[in-house]
Amino acid sequence: MYTLGDIPRKGHALHRNRTAMVFEDTCITYGLLEDRVNRLANALIGLGLQKGGRVTILAENTYKYMEVYFGAAKAGLSVTPLNFRLSDKELTYIVNDCEATVFFVGDGLEERGQTLLKSLKGIEHFVFLNRRGDGIAYYEELLESASNSDPLIDVDESEMAILMYTGGTTGLPKGVMLSHRNLMTAHFGLALGNSFTRKDCVCFSLPMFHVSLWPVLCHLMVGGKSVILRRPDPGEILKAIQVEKCTHLLLVPTVLTWLVDDPRTSQADLASLRLITYAGSPMPIDVLRKCIDRFGPILSQGYGLTEAAPLVSIHFKEDHILEGPRSRLLSSVGKVGIFVEAKVVDDEDRTLLPSEVGEICIRGKNVMMGYWKNPDLTAKTLRGGWLHTGDVGMIDDEGFIFLMDRKADMIITGGENVYPAETEDVLYSHPTVRECAVVAAPDKKWGERVQAVVVLKDGCAATKDELIKHCKDRLAGYKCPKSIDFWNELPKTSVGKILRREVKKHYWNQ
């Protein structure tokens, strides 16, 4: 099996004159990508890094982000990407914990990087990606001074390629060790499952420090083109699709909702799109129907997690059926992906029958090596040879996976189990609701109560009683919110996923 370093290597051999990446005013061919990646690999070796070493990067999206992933891979190193939305304390912990010795910093984050540097223990080389600084290495100068010959370091597929830290919404962030085999297996499965070819072009705007970068890797694997945007912006997304004739778009439900509601979307020529994938959080059914009406039957869902690099399942566009008994599949996350196995277990890890609810578990060569410096958590999460995802759901007799919720987010009120996503789906069906989160809140009588937080659409009004009645008309009473608060906005992750745990803290920390 290939390693990450083989992606630019094979791209050069097969597609050297084709465009690999477009970023703002820069166009990188496969030939130029291989040249620059080789130079970076040799530059890192020249700095004294030995095979097995680690580098870290703090940057917004840029084609140079991919060069760091590939260059490090060719040098036998691993990369720790940093979420720039984290606090300085969290970033300091991650950089020190991952034991990186090289720190790349991107455009606009230079001052923050220098501030962080004062608290970092092992950084020996500090590199600006986009500009020169006094006494600071400059990325382009490193490349200019290095050889463009392939270093041909012997890198095994079992070695770590990316050390990616999870969000850190509770406790300290966890380092997920992903090997070349993990990443290549997952991305082979995603490329095959989504039928990508060298004729495809992705518009990518989600953060590259996240496993959501999979479309870029997939398109580069097959010789396609990746149009990289610095950040998600509906206007820039629409422009990129029309100018570059993008065929694929990946968005999280929050951003997809922005796009479908943007008046410019109805005026744009989006005929080149053949596939829109959404992932990261459940898609409210009413919003999904609206997207299919607007964009056509081209929506496909992906369910995954960092520990699976990220492939778990693919919900094909052909199974997004709006009418009839098969419309039940709209609430599914699809069938298990190529190279992956899945099952559902109870609290004693006994395998359950089809349509019985329990914890989703998966196994395959895409599953992580383990958690960095945390053997106890690794053993607990990978017990029995299966990755225990922490997601509650079922697999029906046709093989479709249905997620109820995160195991940790389940609300137990008066002895009844409530899965927040079910209540949220009903709230989203109300015409005034733009966003919502349902969490457990402390309750003297019931132990926990169903608490909803709602963000209303601009110019809309609704009362708590109105929304509670809306839920009671559609749900069992114990699943309905006992209380609703209205907020101006909800806390979100870097990819736009609503952070229920942060909402929950508001009620438990009072």
Global mean pLDDT: 93
> What portion of residues is helical?
25-40%
Q: What's the CATH H-level homologous superfamily of the largest domain?
A: ANL, N-terminal domain
Task: Determine the number of helices (DSSP H or I, runs of at least 4 residues).
Answer: 15
Radius of gyration: 23 Å
End-to-end C-alpha gap: 53 Å
- Major sheet: 9 strands, mixed
Q: DSSP strand (E) fraction? A: 25-35%
Total beta strand runs: 26
Q: Which secondary structure elements does this structure contain, and how are they paired or packed?
A:
Blueprint: H1 6-15, E1 19-23, E2 26-29, H2 30-46, E3 54-58, H3 63-74, E4 78-82, H4 88-98, E5 102-105, H5 110-117, E6 125-128, E7 137-138, H6 139-144, E8 160-165, E9 175-179, H7 180-193, E10 201-204, H8 214-222, E11 225-228, H9 234-244, E12 248-251, H10 253-261, E13 275-278, H11 285-295, E14 299-304, E15 311-315, E16 335-336, E17 340-345, E18 358-364, E19 370-371, H12 375-381, E20 387-395, E21 401-406, E22 411-413, E23 416-418, H13 420-428, E24 433-443, E25 447-456, H14 464-472, E26 483-486, H15 500-508
Parallel strand pairs: 1-11, 3-4, 3-5, 5-6, 6-7, 10-11, 10-12, 12-13, 13-14, 25-26
Antiparallel strand pairs: 1-2, 8-9, 9-19, 14-15, 15-16, 17-18, 18-20, 20-21, 22-23, 24-25
Helix pairs in contact: 1-2, 1-8, 2-3, 7-8
